[in-house]
C-alpha cells in the first residue's frame, strides 16, 4: 500500500505539486493523467525520493519512505523512466542486471532472472542479451527499460509514460504485456500518461492532475460517469464517453439469453468491441462464446446501447 | 583480418622507427647528404634508443600525474559539494597553460635543481588544462535521462561516478589525454636545456655543432612518436564511442 499524505512540492515560488493525498491499494494499477507540466512526474518521483517533497509524508506499507537512505529505497522500487534511460555502455543483459547486482544477487540467480525477463518480453535472450541499446528499436528499448525496472522483483513499479513513444500496434501489445505481468507478479503499479484512453484501459484507479492539484481520484467508471470538474470532463472527452464506458466491461457481462446468427465474439472481449462488431456487420445480435468456445447467449445492439447510457448517480 | 592501407602504413612506420633506434648506423646513407666536413652523421653522444626511452618516460610520468590530478579535480568540482570550486580550479589550471614552459623551467631550476625534475614540473603543469577541460566537458554533458536512470535504479553517488559517469565521459577524457601527450612529447625536448635526458639533447647537439642531420634525427623521432601515440589513442576513443553507439558504425 502506498499512502501519499498532503504532499507538496515547491520550486522557489512555483508550487508544482499542491497538497496531494491519495492511497494506492496493493496489487493494483493506478494511472496518473494530466496535461504536460501538471506535476505528474514530480509526484511520482517523490515516491522513490528522486525528488524530496517540500511538505507531507509518503508511506510504503505503513513505513515512512524516509526511513531508508534514498538509494536503498530506490533499489526496492522499480522505476521505468520517461524516455527509457538505458545505459548506452552496457549490454541489454547488463542493463537488466543492474539492480540485482547492486543488491548483491549471485550471478546464477541474476542470469536466470535476465533470461526470464527477456523471454517474458518476447526477446530471445541469446540474441538480445549481448546487444547494446543502440542496436535495438525504440519499442525494444522501451521493453528493456521496463524489464530493468522489474529485475529485482520489486513490489512497487513506477512507470513514467512508458508507452509514449510507441506506435499504436506495439503500444497496445505493450499494454497487454503490462497487464499480464501485473497479474503474474502482483506488482503495485503507478503509471503516468497523457492518454485518457490508456488510463481507462489500464487503471484500477485514475488520478487526474492539473496545475499541481489532484482534481479527482477514482475508478475509471466513476470518472466517466461523474467527472469532478469541467477539466476532467474535457479530458474524458464527452464524445467518446459512452464508448469508453463500454470498454470497461467484458461482453460476457452483457449476455442475454437467446441465439444469434453469424460469427461469435468471445466473452472476454470488451462491450465496446462487441458493439463495434454489431454496427460494422449490420446485425442486431451477436452470439457470445466462452473460453471453451461454447455458446453462452448473445449480445444485442439494444442491450449494449442501454449499458452505454450514463449510469444514475 | 584484412589490413587496410593506413594500418599497413602505420605498422611500416613503427617498424622503421624501431629499426632506426636499434641500428641507427644502417641509416647513415640517408642522412649523409645533410652533413658537411666529415662531421658524424648519426648522433654519437649517447644511445638514441636510451634517449627515446627516457624521453617517453618523462612524458609518461608527467602526463600520468597531470591525468590523475586533472581528472580528480574535474570529479571534485562536478560533485554537489565541490561546485563552488569550479571557477577557482578553472583559473588555476589556466595559469598552468598561460605560463610558457620555458618560464616554468627557469623558475623551477633554482627550486629543484637541474635535470628531470624541472622538466617534469613544466610538463605536468602544461598537461593539466586539456585533460581538465575535457573531463569537465565529459562529466557535465552526460545525457540527463541516463544520469537520472542511474539514480533511479538506486546507485550511490560513488557508484554513479564509477559505473556510469566516468565510462560515458571516457572518450572525451581520452581526447584530452591525447592532446596533452602530444603537446608534451614536443615540449619535453626543451627539458634538455636544463639537462634533462630527452631527445632534445640530440636537437641541441645538432644546433650547437651546426649538424642538420642530428637536428633532423631528434625531430623525426619526436614527430613519429607523437603521430603514432596520437593515432593509437584516437583509435581507442573511436572503439569506445562506437561500442556505446555514440558514433555511427561505418
Ligand atoms: N527541478 C525543477 N526545478 C524547477 N521546476 C521544475 C523542476 N522539475 C519540474 N519543474 C516544473 O514543475 C512542473 C511540473 O513538472 P513535471 O515534470 O512534474 O510535469 P509532468 O506532468 O510530468 O509533465 P510532462 O507530461 O510534460 O512530463 C513543470 O512546470 C516544470 O517546469
Ligand atoms: Mg513527466
UniProtKB/TrEMBL annotation, chain A:
Residues 255-313 form the CBS domain. The lineage of its organism: Bacteria, Pseudomonadati, Pseudomonadota, Alphaproteobacteria, Hyphomicrobiales. GO terms for molecular function: ATP binding; ATP hydrolysis activity. Pfam families: ABC_tran. Belongs to the ABC transporter superfamily. Keywords: ATP-binding, CBS domain, Nucleotide-binding, Transport. This is Amino acid ABC transporter ATP-binding protein. SUPFAM superfamilies: CBS-domain pair, P-loop containing nucleoside triphosphate hydrolases. GO terms for biological process: quaternary ammonium group transport. The keyword Iron does not apply. Residues 2-236 form the ABC transporter domain. SMART domains: AAA (SM00382).
Automatic annotation (TrEMBL), chain B:
It comes from the Bacteria. It is found in: Cell membrane. The chain crosses the membrane at residues 7-24, 54-77, 98-115, 121-142, 214-233. PROSITE patterns: ABC_TM1. Residues 52-233 form the ABC transmembrane type-1 domain. Pfam families: BPD_transp_1 (PF00528). Keywords: Membrane, Transmembrane, Transmembrane helix, Transport. One of its GO terms (biological process) is transmembrane transport. GO terms for cellular component: plasma membrane. PANTHER family: GLYCINE BETAINE UPTAKE SYSTEM PERMEASE PROTEIN YEHW (PTHR30177:SF32), GLYCINE BETAINE/L-PROLINE TRANSPORT SYSTEM PERMEASE PROTEIN PROW (PTHR30177). Belongs to the binding-protein-dependent transport system permease family. This is ABC transporter.
